[in-house]
From TrEMBL:
All copies of domain Elongation factor EFG, residue ranges: 9-96
Signal peptide: none
Record-linked Pfam families: EFG_C
Keywords from the UniProt entry: GTP-binding, Nucleotide-binding, Protein biosynthesis
PANTHER family the record matches: RIBOSOME-RELEASING FACTOR 2, MITOCHONDRIAL, TRANSLATION ELONGATION FACTOR G-RELATED
Tree of life domain: Eukaryota
UniProt protein name: Elongation factor EFG domain-containing protein
Amino acid sequence: EGLRKAKSRLMEPLMQVDITTPEEYMGDILGDINGRRGMVGDLGERGNIKTISAQVPLANMFQYVSTLRSMSKGRANYSMKLANYDFVPPNVEEELKKG
């Protein structure tokens, strides 16, 4: 009750996700990142390989390696590290409160 009166907000860890992929998988990977509530920061390239930098909530990154391998036929790679914490969007926070 005290938290409600204080109008506290729930925060979540955001991960910095860096992906390298052949160009033909870019659309599927970008769509998947968006579906995970990710925010794409930079798109780039290194030779024939495309790069994607995004921030994605940690809660939405579980099993990502399997999804990425499946989408890219094993040809894409990624790294992930903690970027920062941010407030959970109000609609997600409401869903969590409902349990």
